[in-house]
Amino acid sequence: MSQRPWREIFCPEELAGRPIFIVLPGGGYHRQADHEGAPVAHWLNSLGLNAMVLHYAVAPDYPGKALHPAPLNDAQETLRWLRSGESGLEIDAERIGVLGFSAGGHLAAALSTGAGSTPTADRPELAVLAYPVISLVSHCHQGSVNALLGPEATWEQRRALSAELTVDTDTPPTFLWHTADDDAVPVENSLDYAAALARHHVPFELHVFPHGHHGLGLALDEGEAGRHPAAEWTSRCAAWLSGQGWRTTA
């Protein structure tokens, strides 16, 4: 494995000139979940969209130190790299989205809302957040807090990186989904973020499925009952992307 950060590119020739999504896998800022990386990029390709999995910095890369702001820096630098044209990739550099899962969803939200004083020019055009960690002060995932800021983080430090408190009118249109009984990252994270988007008149779509454990990813293989009901998120997201004018495939 390459040293983080590193970028895994999924830009087939037939998608030249199409938009691209930066995929941010979850893992509590301790690791990155494989099933939330390459399989998701391939799914985006099937929708006629380019993809890049960003393997951003995680806590083991900074032993004995607070991880923040390394992951946010990684995401910001990657967005600038894609938008500048320096990547050499044949993409639509004016349509760059971000798709994050769990702690990767927190990073995607931080990038989208301007946490860390992110200029508007350094934000994506669309965001997709899957069972995201949003708040570091309420209904929070303590493991992500500890990894990102350390166990002794102050309330002020936690508040500054609570994405429901940093939403503004420049936050991009957002698609969110969660499960109501997620016992790792409570559904209130998505509910509070959606409420913040509504207050700032940012377009969004939110889906809450009744059941499902944390970390479902594409939710394609879930036991004897077959396809998990939450797997419907992919078709709903695809329809949302069509509504945004980002898809050319049926």
From TrEMBL:
Any single GO molecular-function term of the entry would be:
hydrolase activity
What InterPro entries would the database entry show? Answer: AB_hydrolase_fold, BD-FAE-like_dom, GDXG_lipolytic_enzyme
Q: Does the keyword NADP apply?
A: no
Q: What is the superkingdom listed in this entry's lineage? A: Bacteria
* Keyword Hydrolase attributed: yes
| Assigned keywords, A-Z | Hydrolase
Using the record's annotation, list all stretches that form the BD-FAE-like domain: 9-196
Q: What is this protein called?
A: Alpha/beta hydrolase fold
Tell me which species this is from: Arthrobacter alpinus
